[in-house]
Structure formats: structure tokens, C-alpha cells
Amino acid sequence: MRREEAGPSGFLVVDKPSGWTSHDVVDAARGWLGTRRVGHLGTLDPLATGVLPLAVREATKLVPFLMSGGKRYRARIRLGVETETLDAQGGVRCTHSGPLPDAEAVRKALAAFEGEILQTPPMFSALKHRGVPLHRLARKGLSVERAPRRVRVDRILCLGTELPDLELEIDCAAGTYIRVLAADLGTRLGCGAHLAALRRLASGPFSLEQARPPHELSRLARGDVTALLVPPAAVLGLPVLTLEGAEARRVAHGGEIPAPAGLSLTGAKIAALDPEGALLAVLELRANRALRPVRVLGFWPRVAQDTPLC
Asked: pTM score, two decimals?
């Protein structure tokens, strides 16, 4: 395969439309940006819309540092109807025939879902069982045992109650299934429920204000899309250290450098910038007071070749 030319790295925030898979967005972005090196930071279901951050080129190496960021959603939950997929895309499994709970009952039930809770991952998900995605098994009518997982819901705000629908804003940790929360809420209320609509408002440091829809991005010139990339150092949330020539070259080759005074916590991480201000690497403090690269984003070639490494 032909080696891909170097190009700008960073994060592109897309406002994913309903009906698109996260992989559909990645495929489209490869065309907008002219690179195969694009990955997303957390799947959104086809039904969902909103913030889908993409890592581009060297920024793909930083995905593990950003996957644990919190999420914010706006969700519409419909009471009284259970579906096979726990959302509006699945067939109706059960319809509640009695009266729906009032606003006070809903408020009390929602309070039980704040904090650390257990969720059983849905069969219609990308999780794998013996190497096979669960959703493939589910489409064959199969079901396998899934161990409950501990997740965290930091806040649930009820924006409105217009039965049978509830409008909620939810802050939660990565790995929380809003579909499962909707179904579990319906079980607690005794009437069943499913997720009718979902919009992600924020994912870690990325917000809806930064996001552009695919139809807008597809009309822009490649250079204009590139100009929208969020610089990697701006979203890592790490202390920043600018390296001079010899240290930049050493780090670019994977070598250690002495830690600056004031940094004492073993395992602490630092964003190392090259002399031009671009992110060069993520460094970690070792017990010997040396900073070791744990991710190197690129080589800084502007150091003179005869510059000593020590």
C-alpha cells in the first residue's frame, strides 16, 4: 500500500444525524480530510444524534486518554411501551394498559438512578460474546447471559413531563446505556418504557457548540474542514511542558528526559510540546524522576542532526 502523506492532526467534532452509524461518519470524514487515519471516540446508536468526536491522523494515538470523559445527553423516554431493542427502532414487545404514573412518582423513580448503579448491557449493542457482536446474535433471535456492570449517573434533570413522554437531561460516566436506563425506569414505574429519542450534548471536553453536521462538512473544501480540527493539547487537560531542541529530539525518539522541579507524583502525565507549540508526546513521570514518553505523536525534525541526545 502507498504510504500516506503527513497532514494536520487533531479532533473533528461532528453533529451526527439520526440514521447514520458512527462508522458511517468515520467513512465520510476520511473523504472530507483525505486520510484513512480517522477514528471515533465512543459509539452513538443510529437513532441518536449529536456530538461524535473524531480523532484524525496522529490524534488517533490519544483516544485512550479521552475515552473515560463524561457524557451529557438529552433523552425523550416514552412510558407505557417496551420494545425489543429498548429504543424506538425495535418492535413493540409489550404495551401497558393501565394508567401511567404521575409526575411525583416519576420524580421519585428518577432519584433512584442517580449515583452508582448496575446496568445489564443490552443484546442490541456492539459488545462482543466470544468475538461476535451481541447485536448480530440478537438479530438471529439469540440471547446470551450478560454480567451487570457498574456505571455512574451524576445528574438527571426532568425538563418536562407530557405523558406518555418524559424529557430528561442526563450527565453520566462513559459506558452508561441510556436505553437501559429508560427500560429500567419503566420497570421501576411498573409501566414499561423505551428510549424514543436521544441527543448527545457533550462528550468529555467536546461540546455541541463545536459540532458541524455532515451536510455542512461535505460542502467545505478540505482545507476548511482541516481548519476546524481541535488541537490535541487543547483537550487533553494535562499540564503542558514546552521542550527545547535537544529534549524534543530525544522525546521524539522515545527517550526519557529529566522531570522539572515541582512534579513529584509518580505516574503523573504531561503534554509535551515541541518548540513550535505542537503536541509532540504524552510523558509520564517515573519513580526515578524521569519523564518517559507513553505516546509520541510525531518526530520533530527541525533539530540539527549533530545535536547531542544527552
From this structure: 0.89
